[in-house]
Amino acid sequence: MSTSEADGNGGTPLLRISSLAAYYGELRAIYDISLELRQGDVLAIIGANGAGKSTLLRSLVGLMNHGARSHIRGLIEFDGKRIDKLSPDQIVDAGIALVPEGRRLFARMSVQDNLLAGAYLPRCRAGIPTRLEQIYSLFPRLRERRDQVVSQMSGGEQQMVAIGRALMSSPKLIAFDELSLGLSPAMVDEIYHNLGSIIETGTAAIIIEQDLKRALAACTRFCVMLEGSIVLEGKPGEVGEDAITAAYFGAGIGTHHVQ
Ligand SMILES: Nc1ncnc2c1ncn2[C@@H]1O[C@H](COP(=O)(O)OP(=O)(O)O)[C@@H](O)[C@H]1O
Ligand SMILES: [Mg+2]
Q: Fewer beta carbons below 10 Å: N end or C end of the chain?
């Protein structure tokens, strides 16, 4: 039973996005997006290139407020407080961490120094040794390679570093932009296994994933984005893969909301 069912209509969602629009200059990259996430939810965002998936995550973590040319409109509430006007640092502090597409690691620094970079907030400092230990337990490969320079590691290992760095801030919600893109099948298996362990600790997740089957197997809810809007949402198993694929390609079906 999900938290939402347990709570009936009551209970505050962990994340609530209402009527969100995001702009790059004059270009409106996403519009009228509303969604809710509860603790324990894993939301998969599915959609073609350019659908606005990354922009949605960038909006969530404050990066659209940051550039001179981009901005958002609408309301984002997280853990009971409004966050849509906050800076990226304040949003990490509030409990949301992003694993960005392309990872954006410090390539010439060691694994451990990259992990430590994720714990820069004052509230994280005291817990660093415990947190590092938890991350090394989750990713034993990283423990073995803690002193290795990141640029010498495989793509999958680098993805583990990026996930570990995000976890160093002890997030309540972790968002992955292109969780498995470009990784070998064996490494994708391993990353999804790790995702399962992260979720078991009670962390909610949003995953952007190109592999529809993987996304549906891992998520508790999904939404399909097309040209900046959500055109289909539901729970895996409740909506057929044909309908999801049709929505992905914009095959003219109506919005289907499943609560
Ligand atoms: N930095 C940017 N400046 C201008 N337009 C952008 C920028 N980033 C993305 N866009 C545009 O916003 C739209 C959504 O892009 P994006 O969120 O990256 O989609 P997705 O992640 O689903 O591939 C696209 O039309 C893209 O060209
Ligand atoms: Mg993207």
A: N
